[in-house]
Model the fold of this input.
Amino acid sequence: CFERGRMHDATHLGEDLGELIRDPEVHRTMSFYWASRNAGLALRREKFFNETIPAPRKIQEFYKGRAGDDFLEYRGATFDHPREAHGAGSAYTASASSAAHYKDIRVDASKMTEKFARNPAIDADLDIQKRTYIRPGNNAEGEIWVRYHYRNHYVTQASRMYPKTLDKDKDAVTIGGMPGVTGGGGAADGQARADDVRPVVVLSPGTEQPKDSDLLNELRVLVEKETECLAELRTRAEECHDVLQQLDRDQKDNKSTLSIYDTLRGRPNETEAEVAQRKAEEKRRAESRKDYLAPFIAKQENMAKICKGDYGNVKLTAEMARKVRDEAIADLKERLIERGHIMQARLDREREDLMKRQTAFQKNLDSTDGSKDADDFARFSKQST
Done:
């Protein structure tokens, strides 16, 4: 566990890390002070395949404090079994979160998921609760599932499923059965292909079927969101990798400090005569520190090294002795003057209090209870004098 550090800064890695739990080649959990991070990442959990291949099998990220932005609460990814990196289409680099010698291993994300909190400013049928990307980066087999929030008092929710196809000739995302779909064969082949890739739309009761153009535009937006999600996963993985490297460097730079307890335990065995001699020296030094002249002797040049704490048996030159005497007398005079000032201040306060009592007594002489005040004043005057 780590105490709260400074605000998140690229030059101070790991200072927003709250807790790190590691089980090598099994899982790793990193808890952050989410208010100190720009992205609001509160928890990141990684699960690996096995001890021989420490590549991520599943990544889970939990976010807080994004209600005023995109309301993101969760982002996760599930990965295929690692393979050799022969192409540039791999979605994720295993070395970004595992050992350095696995730089030639790549893993492709088989599924990515994003979950969002409810945005009250948007209608529930349009407010996305969950986005799931199946085979992200693969436009031939990929799918995008979108689920929306529940309406109040409803047990069903609206959802949509978009199969992805890529029109290589026009370099544009298209949906089967919509304007812009092109087929490689005749009309029958094109119609069959269109039916296979048409989106599945589940509507809430009382809502209208969306237009094909609206679905096409939404798919294009979702494809962009998929790219952003994949980029965010890579960014978070690189940040956590840098934090772990910084922690490893800090641990290597640590230097052990020998405490007083370790010094006592490591003291070599002493004979009884040595123990008695050491205790006698400690007692003599303690008594010498009680000497009135000891502080003034200790202030002399190089005297602390010569005496080594024993000021009772030190020999002073005539000049040093005069200097010690003058300093001791000057210090005594200063203390006597300070004591006199304290006594005078107390006397002035008592005199002022007596004057106040006398004034109050004079004012109350004519009252019916004057005898009682006179007795009280006489008693106070006697105690004061």
About this structure: Confidence is low (pLDDT under 50) at residues 6-11, 84-105, 166-174, 176-193. The helical segments are 187-196, 212-253, 260-265, 272-289, 294-298, 303-307, 318-363, 370-384. The CA atoms of residues 319 and 325 lie 10 Å apart.
